[in-house]
Design a protein that fits this description.
This protein is α/β, with parallel strands linked by helices. The chain is about 30% helix and about 25% strand. It has a 5-stranded mixed beta barrel. Helix 6 links the parallel strand 7 and strand 8. Helix 1 packs across helix 4, helix 4 runs parallel beside helix 7 and helix 5 packs across helix 8. The mean pLDDT is about 95. It binds hypoxanthine. The site of hypoxanthine has 14 residues, from strand 5, strand 8 and strand 9.
Length: about 270
């Protein structure tokens, strides 16, 4: 993946350097269609050199530069999943570009399965830390300067941003869980035995994205925060099988709350 060609294009098209990039996962996708986003500058992934012309799901993503709650942000609609067969370099390319553009912080959002018995479908979980069980690491290969070869992950999810997200949740009157996100590759859902094992390992939620991007965002020196929409109880926790449809349905049901939380966080953001 030729990052410099991609960066040259993005830099030429970007109307400003955003303070914050927000990766819109399931449950937050509608933010790409809000009036502020419509009034912004959209750069389709297909216009960025090295990005594929279409995703497996048939819809290419876009980066939207817009003002949200009075703040300059970049909304990333769509992401490259590892399970689609994308190389890690592509899955994490947006983070490389944001880092180079001068973005200071990234908010990652995703859909996840709840592993913690105290969680309920539809709740939001602030990510406190992660466990990478994808069997690979996005930084494998030659080190991309100026990031360090061995990136510290002690506090990958910025403590101050987490405090601000808790404050935003309180301000909008929402319950917010906080826990550990465990990443698998997918695309198969987990077995019940895997979920029991993951719980023993300290996982509170399980999902198929985010972790490679977080690692690369940290390598780029950006601050990171993450919120999971708990779209289903993980495999074996309820008597029925898992379906992608229920994940989408729970994401849609949580969308309004998710958006309200993110808007409040953006409004009061202090970096
Ligand atoms: N497992 C993995 N990824 C997911 C899940 C799950 O149960 N729900 C949403 N994404």
């Amino acid at each position: 993946m030729d990052l410099s060609a991609a960066f040259t294009t993005l830099q030429a098209k970007a109307p400003f350097v955003p303070e914050l990039a927000i990766v819109l996962g399931s449950g937050l996708g509608q933010l790409a269609h809000c009036p502020e986003a419509k009034a912004g500058v959209s750069i389709p992934f297909t216009e960025i050199p090295g990005f594929p012309k279409q995703t497996v799901l048939g819809h290419a993503g876009q980066m939207i530069f817009c003002e949200l709650e009075g703040r300059k942000v970049l909304l990333q609609a769509g992401r490259f999943h590892f399970y689609e067969g994308n190389p890690m370099a592509l899955c994490t390319a947006p983070m490389r570009l944001y880092g180079r553009l001068g973005v200071k912080a990234v908010l990652h959002t995703n859909a996840a399965g709840a592993v913690n018995w105290n969680y309920q479908v539809g709740e939001l979980m602030l990510i406190s830390d992660h466990i990478n069980l994808q069997g690979t690491n996005a930084l494998i290969g030659p080190n991309l300067d100026p990031g360090p070869r061995f990136v510290d992950m002690t506090e990958a999810y910025d403590k101050d941003l987490r405090r601000q997200i808790h404050a935003a949740a309180t301000a909008v009157g929402q319950r917010l869980q906080e826990g550990v996100y465990l990443a698998v590759t997918g695309p198969s859902f987990e077995t019940p035995a895997e979920i029991r094992a993951f719980r023993t390992l300290g996982a509170d939620a399980v999902g198929m994205s985010t972790v490679p991007e977080v690692i690369v965002a940290r390598h780029e020196g950006m601050k990171v925060a993450g919120i999971s929409c708990l779209c289903n109880m993980a495999a074996g926790m309820l008597p029925q099988p898992l379906t992608h449809a229920e994940v989408l349905e729970a994401g849609a049901a949580a969308a309004t709350r998710f958006e309200a939380l993110v808007r409040r966080f953006v409004k009061d953001l202090s970096l």
